[in-house]
């Protein structure tokens, strides 16, 4: 995969448009909270003649509280 990105001179940027804690799973008091992020991912490469292509993604981060800090315990992409 890295070889292809290098060959096509791919540049990928991502922007989080919105995020929210998911109500059905966990409670911050339990030290675990799932968070849903809406992310636009834009790729520019020679494979697309330099024209940007955008993918609209949703990503779930399973946040866990460890020693007073919130850390990512898992990631699921949809």
What does the model show?
The protein is mainly beta and 78 residues long. It has one domain: Roll (Nuclear Transport Factor 2, Chain: A). 8% of the residues lie in helices and 60% in strands. It is built from one helix and four strands; from the N terminus they run αββββ. Strands 1-2-3-4 form a four-stranded antiparallel sheet, with no helix packed on it. A hairpin with an 8-residue loop joins β2 and β3. The protein is elongated and about 50 Å long. The two termini are 20 Å apart.
Topology readout:
Elements: H1 2-7, E1 11-21, E2 32-44, E3 53-66, E4 69-77
Antiparallel strand pairs: 1-2, 2-3, 3-4
Offer a few descriptive terms:
single chain; 78 residues; mainly beta; Nuclear Transport Factor 2, Chain: A; 4 strands; 60% strand; elongated
Would you kindly provide a brief summary of this structure?
The chain has one helix and four strands. It is mainly β.
Count of discrete domains: 1
The count of β-strands is 4
Side by side, the strands of the main sheet go 1-2-3-4
Mean pLDDT value = 89
- In helices, the fraction of residues equals under 10%
CATH architecture: Roll
Q: Rounded to an integer, what's the Rg over CA atoms?
A: 16 Å
Report the total helices: 1
How much of the polypeptide forms β-strand, as a percent range? Answer: over 45%
What is the quaternary state of this protein? single chain
Q: Given the C-alpha coordinates, what overall shape results?
A: elongated
């Amino acid at each position: 995969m890295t070889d292809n990105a290098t060959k096509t001179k791919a540049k990928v940027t991502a922007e989080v448009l919105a995020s929210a804690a998911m109500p059905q799973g966990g409670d911050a008091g339990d030290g675990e909270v799932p968070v849903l992020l809406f992310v636009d991912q834009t790729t520019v490469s020679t494979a697309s003649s330099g024209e940007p292509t955008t993918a609209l993604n949703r990503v779930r981060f399973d946040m866990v509280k460890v020693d007073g800090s919130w850390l990512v315990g898992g990631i699921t992409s949809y």
